[in-house]
Amino acid sequence: MLFKILPRLSYTKLNSLNSLKIRLTFGVALLSGLGLGGVALWMNWKMENLLIATHKQTVNYVANRFPHDVQLYSEMVSLEVGIEKTINNLSDHKNIFWFKNQDNKIVAKSFYFYPQLTKINQVNTNPQVVNFDNNSWLVCGIPLNINQEFIGYLYIAQNITNEQVLFTHLISSLTFITILAITILIISIASYICYSLKPLEKICDVAENISADQLKEVSINFNHSPNEVKKLAESLEKMLIRLGESWENQQQLLNNVSHELRTPLTIVSGYLQSTLRRGDNLTSVQKEALSVAVSEADRTVQLLEDLLDLARADNGNIQLKIELIIVNDLMREIIAIVEQYQQIKINLIEENCAIKIKVDRNRFKQICLNLIDNAIKYSPDHKEIAIKLTMNNSAIIQIIDRGIGIPLPLQTKIFERFYRVDEARNRDTGGTGLGLAIVKTLVNTMNGKISVISQVEKGSIFTLTFPLID
Fold it and tell me: Same domain, yes or no, for 64 and 87?
């Protein structure tokens, strides 16, 4: 029974809050909002003070006129009657007056009078807003002196309901306009920032999509961009050209060295093997030394072969003979080869249908043999190795082992060149650290995909995916 392996967790690259767009938009929007909000609050405070200041002028006018009118009436009638006549002359439905003598008794009041107003005992010129019966009143009290003699307190109440409604409406309109302006401003700023950062996104796209053999051919033109962006693009282009030249030199050196060393090493390996076969008079120590030399020479030749394959793939010179193959039949052939030389039983699990794909037959065999060889090397003796063939919009080939497994942090690195999970173990098994790198390169070249899921001490599943051919 095949084991189950948990899929790897996928991780997000960066938190979106770290985006330059969001930071700039949020920062500018916050400053703009604070600025417009501050202006709106200042206008609110200013309008309220203006409303109160206007009514203060009326209070001051009445305070200056009232004693003079009372004094004129007092020459003809009594003081109380003079105060009442003066109040009646100044009163209307929006301005109400009442007078309290020194004993705090109301001795005169307007015809339009509300008893609720008498609850106000504030005796100063600072108006106080009082609300009742859905009306707003501005009330204040002032001391009244006639002929420089204090006679009581005059209270003035002004109906400011209409002004209050107008003021509230203005504040609501101002609030709405402020919110609307901030919203439009944020949208405009976000759009402008997105437009301004498009050149940087283009640079990122170029950097992400460029391949090694295209480094010297990259051209980044930003004629209408800001000077800083153009300078960045020019610097990046020069850097890519330098990297392209270095890459070409490195590939040329690798290619030349591999070609130059492969032939003499092959000859050396042949002579060593011939000497070992005919060395009847050699001591056991000499035979052991020759065996080690042959093994290392063969290993070095294989390393050079791998390097040449990678160099050809990097330069786009790898030769592929694409043809239609039936995976089921080819996989039986591969298993027969492995079982003949490895003395191991491999379980083939397949659906009752032919799986057809278009690949290079020899390269596909190389990929499968490499993966099966890895499964055998890193599996304990008598552990099950299986190959599973399925279809799900694609051809899926899985090489499954129950070996030592690969730690999760290392699973993304095993396809890197010269990377080894266990350096000592790979050295003992003759690994060069290039096998899986070549497999991945060949798979990608033939429009396929390769992935791995694994658990330590439970095994690994290498999955090959290729497009199906009807």
Answer: yes
